[in-house]
Amino acid sequence: MSQVLLSAKGLKMSFGGVKAVNHVDLDLAGDELLCIIGPNGAGKTTLLNLFTGILRPQAGAISFAGRAMVGRPLYEYARRGIIRKFQVPSVFSEMSIKQNLEVALLGVGAGGAEAGAVDEILELIGLRSQADQTMADELAHGQKQWLEIGMALICRPKVLLLDEPASGMTKEETRKLAEMLLDLDHLSTIVIEHDMAFVRTLNSRTVVMHNGEIIRDDQFSVIEQDPLVGDIYLGRQ
Amino acid sequence: MTGNKLRNLLALFRQRPLQARDKLFLVVIGGLFLLLAVYPLWGDSYSLSVMRDVLIMSIFALSLDFLWGQTGLLSFGHSAFFGIGAYVMALLTLKAGLGSLTALVCAMAASASVALLTGYFLIYAGVRREYFAIVTLALALVGQQILLSFANVTGGDAGLIDIPFLKFGLFGAEYTFDDNLSLHFLALVSAAVVLLTLWLVLRGYYGSILKAILNNEQRALALGHNTSAHLLIAFTVSAILAGLAGALFTSTQGIVTPELIGPILATEVIVWVAVGGRGTLVGPMVGCFLVIRMRQEISSISTTLWPLVLGVFFVLVVFVAPGGLATLVRSLTGSRFFSAGKKERPWT
Amino acid sequence: METILPATLNGLALISILMLVGLGMAIIFGMMGVINLAHGEFMTLGAFTLSYVQVLGGNYWVGLALAPLVGLAAGFSIESLVIRHLYTRPFETILATWGVSLIIQKILEMIFGSGMQPVFHPFEGSVVFMGVDLPAYRLFLVSFTMVVIILCVLVFRKSQFGLDLRAVIQDRDMASAMGININRTNSIAFAVGAALAALSGALVAPLVAVYAWMGVTFLSKAFFVVIVGGTGTVAGVAAGSALIGFLETFFNYTIHSSLAQALVLILAIIIFRFRPQGLVQK
What we know:
The structure holds 3 protein chains of 3 kinds.
Chain A: E1 4-15, E2 18-29, E3 33-37, H1 44-51, E4 59-64, E5 67-68, H2 74-80, E6 82-85, H3 97-107, H4 115-125, H5 141-153, E7 159-163, H6 171-183, E8 188-192, H7 196-202, E9 205-210, E10 213-219, H8 220-225, H9 227-233
Parallel strand pairs in A: 3-8, 3-9, 6-7, 7-8
Antiparallel strand pairs in A: 1-2, 1-4, 4-5, 9-10
Chain B: H1 2-11, H2 20-37, H3 45-71, H4 79-94, H5 100-123, H6 129-149, H7 151-154, E1 166-170, E2 173-177, H8 180-203, H9 205-215, H10 217-222, H11 227-253, H12 263-276, H13 282-301, H14 305-320, H15 324-333
Helix pairs in contact in B: 3-8, 3-11, 3-12, 3-13, 4-5, 4-6, 4-11, 5-11, 12-13
Chain C: H1 4-31, H2 39-55, H3 60-81, H4 90-112, E1 126-129, E2 132-135, H5 136-158, H6 160-170, H7 172-177, H8 182-204, H9 215-229, H10 234-254, H11 257-274
Antiparallel strand pairs in C: 1-2
Helix pairs in contact in C: 1-5, 1-8, 1-9, 1-10, 2-3, 2-8, 2-9, 3-8, 5-6, 6-8, 9-10, 9-11, 10-11
C-alpha cells in the first residue's frame, strides 16, 4: 500500500449559497488510479479546481507530498507535479502541436530536457506526422484531447487530473486511452468521467459524488451494483 | 540545483534550426540594411537626418512590438519610457556633465525602474488588456505634466537644446558621433543590433512561452509558467529599449521636448506597429518609416492636420480593418507572412 | 483656520467636479462597460460652450444651461456613430474613442485657435464665514453640484428610464425580450453621461485654463475615480472622488502640484492592486 500522496480534509466551497463542495475528505495514494463519477452539478469539477489551486476552498486543507498547498500560486501546483487536463480542450491554438508540447515541458522547468521527450509523447498520442506544421486549432476535437493528454504527460506529473478525457473520442480512441491510463505507473491519476463504459474498463477505485459530497468510495465493481448509485443517476434522490 | 536552473534558463534561448522562413527573413533584412548602409552615397544632408530619426524611432517601434506583438499587452502610453530615456539622458549629459555611456545606462535604468514599479503593481494584480492600456496611458499623461511643471529643470514647453552628442572611447581614441555619416551608422547599427537580438531571443523557446501566454494565459499558468513574472520582464525589457531609443534620439538630435513623452507620440508608435504588422518585428520598422514620411507631408500643410489624421485613422481602422491591418493585408495579398496573432480579437 | 477653510472649500470644489465627471464616467464605464477615452472632451465641449456664449455676449447662466445640452448632442452622435457598433469589443472602443478624442480636440483648435479661451463667472467676491473669506463661486459650485447629483440619483431610481437602464445592464437579451428598446436606452445613457461631463466642464471652466486639450487631465482622473471607487455605484463614485479629490488638494497644498498628480496616480495604482474591486463593493 503506497503512501498517501494527495490528501484533502474537510473541503468546503460554495458559490453564492450553493454548496458545490460540502465537507469532502479524500486521500489519494501514489500510484493509484481513481475515478470520480456523479451526475452533473455534483461538484466534481469544482473539486478538481480546488486540487489544482484555481479555486481557494472556504474551509479545509489540501496537502500534497506532505506540503500544504492552499494559497500557493497557480504555477506552483504544476511545478510540484499536479498536472491537469481540462474538460474543454484548452490548447495553444496558434502554435504547432510540437510547440504546444514544448511549452508544456518548459513549464515544469524541464527546458534542458531533450527533444526525445517530445518525440516520445508524439508517438504515444499518435500525432507524430505533421507535428511541426499543424496548428493546434486545426485538430479535430478528439485529437485536441490527445494533445492535451500529451501535454499533461510530458510534464511527468506525480498526480494527473483528467476532466472527462474520453469526451469526443471514438470507441477505438477510448479503448486506447483506457489502455494507456492502466499502463501508467509512477503516478497517481484522478479521472472524472461520464462515460460509464470507459469507467468500467478502468475498473478502479471509484468515488461517487452527489450534491457536493462523497457518498460512495469503493471499487467500481461494487459501486456498479449499488442501488443508491443507480437512483442518483436516475434522479430518484 | 542552481546549475540545473541556469541550464534551464539558457535552454530557453537555444536556437532551433533555421527554416526557410528564417532564411528569407535574414536575406530581406540583410538586403535592407545593406541598402541603408550605402544610402549616404546619394542621400543629401536633410534626407540623412530624416533617415537616422526613422532608424532610431524604429527601435522604439521594436520595443512596442516586442511587448504588444509577443505578449498581447498594449502599453498605450509607451512614450512615457521613450521620454524618460530622452530626458534623463539630456539632463545627465547637459546639466550634470556625465559621460555618454554612464548617462545612457542611467537613462535605460530610469525607464526600467518606472516599468518595474508600475508593472509589478499592475501585472501581478492581473490587470490586462483594456485596463492595462488606460493605466499606461495615464503614465504618459502624468509624465508629460511633470515635465511641463518643473520647467526650470526641464525647460518646460520648449524643452532643452544643445544636448551633447554621444562620445565614446573606442580602442584608446575618443570618438564623437556628431557628423552626418557617423550618426547615420550609429543609428543603423543600433537598429540592426536591436532587431537581430530580439529576433534571436524570440526564435528560441522563450518566444514560444511568450506566445503561449498571449494565446491562453490560464493554460500556461496551469502548466507551471509564472506568467506574471514573464510579462513583467517583457514589459521592463520593452521599457528599456524604448528608453534606449529616447536617449539615442536626443543625443543625435541635440534637443529634447515634452512631445517625446506625450500622448501623440504614444499614439504614433501604436500606428507604426499596427500598420507594419504586429508581431513581425520588421513590419513595425517599415510602418515607422511610412508613417513618419506621411506625417512630414501632412504637417507641412498644417500642424493641426496630422493629429486629426491620426484620430480619423484610429476610428476608421477599427471599422475598416477589424482584423487588424495585418489581416487586411493578408486577405488582400493572400500572403501568410503577416500572421499577426489571434483571429477573433486581433487588437488585444 | 485661515488656510484650512479655504483649502477645504477648494477640496470640496474639486471633489464636486470629480463627482460630476465621475458620475458620467460611472454610467458609461461602470455600468455600460464602455471605455470612452473621449470623456474628457465632453468636458472641454462644455467649457467651450460657456466661453463661446459669453464671447457672443450671452450671460453665464445661458452658457451653463447650454453646456449639458451640447454634451447631450455630442453624446448622442458619438454613441450612434461609433460606440454602438463596438459594444462587445472593449479594446476597439479604446482605439475608436481615442481617435474621436483627437478629432474633437483638433477641430476645436481649428475653430477657436490654440490659445486660452476667455471665461468668467458672475459670482464676484467672497462670503465671510467664521471670519474667513470664502470665494462665492466655489460655494455655488459645491451646492449646485450636490443638487444635480441628488436629481440624478432620483431620476435613476424612480424613473422608467432608470429602471430600463438597470435592466439592460443586468441582462441585455432579457431586457430586449421584455420589450425594452436597447438601442434607445444605451443612447440615452451615454448621452446623459456626456451631458454630466459637459456640465462639469462648464462649472470648472472659470477656475482653470480653458484649452482645446484640457480634457486630457480630467480623463485619467475620472477613470481613477471610478476604478478606485468601485465601478457602478453612486456611493462608489462619491468615495472615489472624495479620496482622489482630497489627495490632490492635500498634495497641492503641501508639495508641487504636478508631483501631486503623479502621486495620486501611483496611489491609485497601488489601491487598485490591493483592492481591484474598488473601495465600495457593489
